[in-house]
Each structure stands twice: as structure tokens, then as C-alpha cells.
Amino acid sequence: MPPTRFAYRRAPDQDRATPSHHPIVIVGAGPVGLSLAIDLAQRGQPVLLLDDAERIGEGSRAICFSKRTLEAWDRLGVAAPMLAKGVTWQRGRIFSGAHELFDFNLLPEGGHKMPAFINLQQFYAEAHLVARAGDVPGLDLRWANRVTAVTQDDAGVHVTIQTPDGPYALTATHLVACDGARSPIRAMLGADFVGETFEDLFLIADVKMQAPFPTERWFWFDPPFHPGRSALLHKQPDNVWRIDLQLDRTADPDLERDPDRVRARLTRMLGHGDFSFEWISLYRFQCRRMARFVHDRIIFAGDAAHQVSPFGARGANSGIEDAENLAWKLDAIHRGAPAAALLASYEAERIQAADDNIANSTAATDFIAPATDYEHMLRTTTLRLARHHGFAKRMVNGGRLSKPTAYASPLSTADADPWAGGPPPGAPLVDVPLRAPGGTPSFLTDAFRAAGCTFTLLRHGDGPTLDGIPTLTIGEAEWHDVDGLFAQRYDTSPGDAYLLRPDGYIACRLRAATIPPLRAALTRACGET
Amino acid sequence: MTLRTENNLPDPDTAYRLLVAAHRRLAPDLHASFDAALVLLLANHIGDPEILRQALAAAAASVEA
Ligand SMILES: Cc1cc2nc3c(=O)[nH]c(=O)nc-3n(C[C@H](O)[C@H](O)[C@H](O)COP(=O)(O)OP(=O)(O)OC[C@H]3O[C@@H](n4cnc5c(N)ncnc54)[C@H](O)[C@@H]3O)c2cc1C
């Protein structure tokens, strides 16, 4: 396991008479700030990443990392060790009372490089990201650097930082606040953060035990071992299991934290007491977001910008999506692309995603913890109907797991041709197996990475090229669609083409593609019209 | 689609009688969950969230009046 504690080091900036200038400063080395910093540095931007701690956060936090996150992390060079350590899963099972209601499969089709999900303790994920951050040239990560003040004007952002050696100041062209749900920077700007707070108290315990359960997400409504409430069981690496128990809304957190009391609850659930505690936490959850994510030169991402309840694993995963959305835009801006248009597109796209995530997490939390007697009755009725009727199974909501949002985006060019399938403009690339030009079995996500994770013309067979951007050709002598899954999943025939953005989202697609409409779509996707 | 609020049943009396008869057989504490199950089944059958929205609005108006 890579290290999780890091020494404070004095930086040359601290000995300068006047504040040094950095093009991009990121505040917060959680999963979001780290992913963003690595992405920017890989794209060639010097980045300064500041974190107030000297260690990776511990305790019960994220465990489920999505396919989309893994695809982003693969581009950042960290997916392989995480996959090796993580528990791969795609199946969930829902129980009501003493009975199993149904199971579901989050990735029934094959031919994807990344699984539907892995479970991995957040601190492991962060440790791998920190290790990678240390290897990427141009990334300066400073621990025990707490941002205590930010102001901005036409010249830039003025940042004051507290360290064990005392304070220092610097300036930045852009500052990205990835400083978590309690975001001090949000408070410094006096920006709002409004939404819904759920009254129910949840007990989250990570326990170590030898257990025969499969690597599936198990969710119970009203189980015999915890009558009237809900429960969740999910496997993590190292024989650690995540258990969530819904408690009364009047429950006293200090009392419920008592290990003996938790032990009694879990013994009822597991039928034995043969486990030890890693962590015990009590949470009340919130779903909320900032009204705006972009405040001139200060940009918010991750939990600082939006927060959800954990049913659906949409917190860190959506934050990683923020990071991949913002990284290429900031890179382009620092190479001269129009800042206002690209930052506006970040805000528009990621607010759509935040609203989607909040809607899904709120619906799940309302179903899991009904707020009124009526809602409780409606849920009980739905669960009863679900024993016999398929439609009601679809209403049973034990968490809708994180999926990327397809954007209605100012950067997209709408379809002009008829398409019967395939990812539409604004949607993320869908993986397919391909044979690489050298003959090795590979994937479209690998081909995109090999092309440089930049604007890429993805075409089926021969066709036009665009000056200044790479072309990925699907064809026997190039990336070979051995199983025909590219043609199927992208609904293409020879001559058709997709234009991919640097984050792997679709900017536009054309049948019998020609240069003028492709060029126009590229200009639009660059924020230039 | 718009919610039909003029008569759409061949025999409205039969529909009303069916509801009454079904509820007469129920213990008093089961009326609410029975109706909830009925609403869920019918909502799924209709399959149109816009119709459901209009029906909910009409129902809300009827209890507020
Ligand atoms: C019980 C639970 C289960 C969860 N499960 C999942 C899950 O399965 N999947 C999922 O995707 N998400 C899950 N989440 C959510 C996930 O943990 C968060 O969404 C994620 O940590 C957000 O990452 P972040 O980088 O935005 O913020 P954080 O991880 O909070 O990082 C913020 C960083 O900023 C630093 N910082 C703060 N202030 C300053 C300052 N002034 N100066 C410098 N640095 C500062 C902090 O030290 C910290 O390192 C779960 C959360 C909980 C509580």
C-alpha cells in the first residue's frame, strides 16, 4: 500500500519577498482535487495542489467507484492498481422482510475494459492518486498548507496560506476549490449551498470478518434482524464489509456510537459476533448544491459544489466527472481558448449532472427512509406488489447507482442524420473491444488514450481527417472491430464518424462525414462560437 | 395526452359498485393501502407520467375544494 502520511516541506514560494504567481491552484487533495491535478499536469499544465492535512482522510467514506470513474482513472494511469486491489462487482440483491425480492445486474453486456463498479476504501484510492501525483511532472503537491483567505480581481486570485512555518501568499489565474462539503472557500465567498437535509440517522460500520457472502450489494427493507428499517451489506478489500443501518430519527448519535450497542445490532444481523470494527460512524445526509459553480476565476468541483446522500455512490464519482470535465477546459483556456465560454459549459454541464445526482439520491433516500406515515404505507404497498408484479420491482429503490449524465450542452452539435443507436452528442463514449493495429486485443478506451485524450475524430473506415486533431480509424488494418461491436454500439456504417471531446464525450456525429460540418462542430466544441 | 374527465366508462355505476364492493370486504385499517396498491397498478397501466400529473392535480383540487 502506498503511504498515507506525508511530511510538510517548505516551498521556495515561502521565501520570496512578493507573492509568486501560479496559473492554476487547486485547493483540497481529496479524490477530486487529486484527479483534477493529475489530469491537468498530464495535459502539460503546471499545477499547485494545496491540502491542509498531512495525511489521507480515514474512516468510512466512499467505497463504490463507478465504471466512468475507472475509465477516467485509467487515463490518469491509476486504474490498474485500484482494479487489482478492489472488489469487482456488478450485481445487487434486494430483500424485503425475510424474502429476496429480485436481483439486478449493472453491466449485463461484455466487451468493456472496466467493470460496472469496484469497491475500494477511499483511503486506498487516494493513496494511489497521491503516488501518481508524485510521478507526474509539473504537479506540486503541498501538505499542511491551509488556505485561509481568497480574494479576486482582474489581475487574478490572491491566496493566503497557513503552514507550520507561518503564513505566505501567492496569486493564481484560476483557483479550483475541491475543499470538500464544508468548503471553507465557499464560505469565504459567501456563496450559498442549499438543499434538503434528511432527518434519519444512519449507522455506518466497517467490520472485518470472514464471511461467505458473494461480492454483491445486498439491501434489505424491514429485515427480521432490523425490523421496520433498512440495511445494506457490501464487501470491501481486506475482508472488510460495509454495513449501513437506518436508525430512528430520534436516535441519539452518542449513544448509538457505543461499540457494545453496535455489536449487539450487528450480531442480530450476521447471526454471530465473530467480527472486529474498523470504523463506526453516524451520519445524517444532505442533498444540495451551489447555485453557481463558477465564480469568475474561482471554480468549485466535487463535494464543495454539490453533496448527495451515499445511496447510489454518486458523491466521489460525480466529483471525478467534474474533474474530467474541467481538466481539458482549463488546459485549453491556458493555451488561449475562450475562458468564458468553456467555463460556462463546465457550469452548465456539471449542474445538469448535479441535479440528476441529487434527484436520484433524494428519491432513493425518500424510499429508504420514508418521511411520513403515508410514505411509509406507500412503500410497504409497493414492496408487497413487487413480490408478484414486475412494474413494482422497478419502483423499489434501494439506491440508483452512479451513471454519467448525458449533457444538453452548448458545445454539442445536434444530430442532423437519423441514428437508431449509439451515444448521442453530449453522452460519454461507450467502450467496445477492438484489435489494436499491432494485433493485441484492446478497447476503444485504449485507442482514445493512445490518440492522446484530445479532440479525436473517430471514423468507421476511410473518410476525411481534420487538420490539427488525431484520427482513430476503425478498420481491418487499423483498430479492428473484430466482433462487430463497434458498428453495433455506435450504429455506424463505413464513412460515418464521431467527434470526441478530450474528456471522451461525444461532440457530434455524422453519417457519410465531410469536412465542413466536422470543422464547424469542432469549432463549437472548442467554445469558439 | 390530456386526462379524460368526461365519462369514459361504458357503465360508470358498475365501476363505482366495484370500488364499493372491494372496500366493503376490507378491515378498516386496510383501505389506505388497498387504494395505494390500486393507484400504483393503474398508474403503471396508464404508463404516461403526464396523465398521472394531471390526475394528481385534479385529485388535489377535489380535496382542497
Ligand atoms: C458514508 C459515506 C459513504 C460514501 N460512499 C461513497 C461511494 O460509495 N461512492 C462515492 O462516489 N462517494 C461516496 N461518498 C462520498 C465521497 O466520500 C465524497 O463525495 C468525496 O470524498 C468528495 O471528494 P472531494 O475531493 O470533493 O472532497 P474531500 O474528499 O472532502 O476532500 C477535500 C479536501 O480538502 C481539504 N481542505 C479542506 N479545506 C481546506 C483548506 N482550507 N485548505 C486546504 N485544504 C483544505 C481537506 O483536508 C480534504 O483533503 C460517501 C460518503 C460517505 C460519508
At a glance:
The complex is a heterodimer of chains A (529) and B (65). Chain A is α+β, with helices and mostly antiparallel strands and 529 residues long.
List the helices and strands and how they pair.
The complex is a heterodimer of chains A (529) and B (65).
Chain A: E1 20-27, H1 31-42, E2 47-50, E3 64-66, H2 67-75, H3 79-85, E4 87-89, E5 91-96, E6 99-105, E7 117-119, H4 122-135, E8 139-142, E9 146-153, E10 156-163, E11 166-177, H5 184-189, E12 194-197, E13 202-208, E14 217-221, E15 230-236, E16 240-246, H6 253-256, H7 259-270, E17 276-283, E18 286-289, E19 294-295, E20 298-300, E21 306-307, H8 315-333, H9 339-368, H10 373-386, H11 390-395, E22 433-435, E23 441-443, H12 444-450, E24 456-460, E25 471-474, H13 485-490, E26 497-500, E27 506-510, H14 515-525
Parallel strand pairs in A: 1-2, 1-11, 2-8, 5-14, 11-20, 24-25
Antiparallel strand pairs in A: 3-7, 4-7, 5-6, 9-10, 10-11, 12-18, 13-16, 13-17, 14-15, 15-16, 18-21, 19-20, 22-23, 24-26, 26-27
Chain B: H1 12-24, H2 31-46, H3 49-64
The complex binds flavin-adenine dinucleotide.
Structure write-up:
The complex is a heterodimer of chains A (529) and B (65). Chain A is of the alpha+beta class and 529 residues long. Chain A folds into four domains: 4-86 and 116-194 and 288-360, FAD/NAD(P)-binding domain, CATH 3.50.50.60; 196-286, Alpha-Beta Plaits; 361-393, no CATH class; 433-525, Glutaredoxin (3-Layer(aba) Sandwich). Chain A has 14 helices and 27 strands. In chain A, strands 1, 2, 8, 9, 10, 11, 19 and 20 form an eight-stranded mixed β-sheet that branches. In chain A, strands 6-5-14-15-16-13-17 form a seven-stranded mixed β-sheet, with no helix packed on it. In chain A, strands 25-24-26-27 form a four-stranded mixed β-sheet, covered by helices on one side. In chain A, β10 and β11 (166-177) form a beta hairpin. In chain A, α8 (315-333) runs antiparallel to α9 (339-368). The longest helix of chain A is centred in the C-terminal third of the chain and has 30 residues, at 339-368. With 65 residues, chain B is an all-alpha fold. Chain B has a domain at 30-65. In chain B, 69% of the residues lie in helices and 0% in strands. Chain B has three helices and no strands. Chain B has helices spanning 12-24, 31-46, 49-64. The model of chain B has no long low-confidence stretch (mean pLDDT 96). Chain A binds chain B through residues 374, 377-378, 380-382, 384-385, 389, 391-392, 395, and chain B through 32-33, 36-37, 40-41, 44. The complex binds flavin-adenine dinucleotide. Flavin-adenine dinucleotide binds next to α1, β9 and α8 of chain A.
